[in-house]
């Protein structure tokens, strides 16, 4: 799969509680048709947000279906599940994001959970100036996103601003926050001083780029001469040690070894009365 990884790579290993951010976008089927055949996860949540194309998925807790443009899949692996994610192009295009959110030690072996949110169930806040905000999780003005009961108390917004628009979003103090700019360009607070990664043109952040915000109580964005579209994501850091190995993210090496042992022994998948819980 052809991916742009902006969190979870060499430049930015971990932005507690966010372990990984992948952006996939392509009109060449060779980039994505291999997909992700059946594979395990433990200790994390994966959030898939589609822009184009479709992904067929199924998992070991009985979910199966197809997610398409605008749909969101919020998958809590907890103590262990296996799933497959197989892209299906629509008019040859495929695009979207996958974010991994870490889980606290006390929930890492909890019951897996799956939330699928159709495009139509994700509220859209439209302003008179043409700004559009899709609220996947968290809050914009008085509008709440449909993804709930996630430990990291995440906010996940898809924001489109027309040229000249200003945008301010409150962020709880102490939460990690980032913006991933995937269309156009804009000014992002004092992003230039805050660990920005990507192409920089003066004070403008251009697609594709990740802006990591420092601590504060709000995020400010200004679309200058052209429109901008970005994901704005924040969440409460866990402040716990992590041990990661591919699709498993635990707190210690021993717990990773346990995951591998469970996989080999055929006891990986979470079950009621799971001895490890
Ligand atoms: Fe997966």
Structural description of this entry:
The chain is mainly beta and 277 residues long. The protein folds into 2 domains: 1-120 and 242-270, Sandwich (Jelly Rolls); 122-239, Jelly Rolls. It contains 1 helix and 23 strands. It has one helix at residues 253-265, and strands at 4-7, 18-26, 36-41, 44-52, 54-59, 64-67, 72-76, 81-88, 94-102, 113-117, 124-126, 132-137, 139-140, 143-144, 155-161, 166-170, 176-188, 197-201, 204-213, 218-222, 228-235, 243-245, 248-250. Strands 11, 12, 15, 16, 17, 18, 19, 20 and 21 form a 9-stranded antiparallel β-sheet that branches. It has a 6-stranded antiparallel β-sheet with strand order 1-2-9-4-7-10, with no helix packed on it. Strand 11 (124-126) and strand 12 form a beta hairpin. The longest helix is centred in the C-terminal third of the chain and has 13 residues, at 253-265. The model is unreliable at 191-197 (pLDDT under 50). Residues 36, 39, 41, 46, 83, 85 line the site of fe (iii) ion.
Please give the oligomerization state of what you see.
single chain
Write down the CATH class of the largest domain.
Mainly Beta
What compounds sit in this structure? fe (iii) ion
Which residue ranges are poorly predicted, with pLDDT under 50 across at least 5 consecutive positions?
Answer: 191-197
Mean pLDDT: 90
- The total domain count is 2
CATH topology of the largest domain: Jelly Rolls
Share of helix, binned: under 10%
Class by alpha and beta content: mainly beta
Q: CATH superfamily assignment of the largest domain?
A: Jelly Rolls
- In whole angstroms, the N-to-C terminal distance is 34 Å
């Amino acid at each position: 799969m052809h991916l742009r990884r902006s969190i979870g790579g060499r430049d930015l290993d971990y932005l507690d509680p966010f372990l990984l951010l992948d952006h996939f976008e392509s009109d060449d089927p060779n980039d994505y048709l291999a997909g992700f055949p059946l594979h395990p996860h433990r200790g994390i949540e994966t959030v898939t947000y589609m822009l184009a194309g479709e992904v067929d998925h199924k998992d070991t807790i009985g979910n199966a279906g197809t997610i398409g443009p605008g749909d969101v899949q919020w998958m809590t692996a907890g103590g262990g599940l296996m799933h497959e994610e197989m892209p299906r192009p629509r008019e040859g295009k495929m695009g979207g994001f996958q974010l991994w959110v870490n889980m606290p030690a006390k929930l890492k072996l909890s019951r897996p959970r799956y939330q699928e949110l159709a495009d139509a169930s994700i509220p859209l806040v439209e302003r008179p100036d043409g700004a559009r905000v899709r609220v996947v999780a968290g809050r914009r003005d008085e509008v709440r996103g449909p993804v709930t009961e996630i430990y990291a108390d995440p906010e996940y917004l898809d924001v489109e601003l027309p040229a000249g628009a200003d945008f301010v979003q409150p962020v709880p103090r102490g939460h990690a926050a980032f913006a991933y700019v995937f269309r156009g360009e804009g000014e992002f607070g004092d992003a230039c001083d805050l660990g920005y990664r990507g192409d920089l043109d003066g004070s403008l952040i251009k697609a594709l780029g990740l802006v990591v915000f420092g601590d504060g109580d709000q995020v400010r964005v200004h679309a200058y001469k052209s429109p901008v579209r970005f994901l704005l994501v924040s969440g409460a850091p866990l402040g716990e040690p992590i041990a990661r190995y591919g699709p498993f993210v635990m707190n210690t090496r021993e717990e990773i070894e346990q995951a591998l042992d469970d996989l080999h022994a055929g006891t990986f998948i979470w079950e009621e009365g799971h001895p490890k819980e």
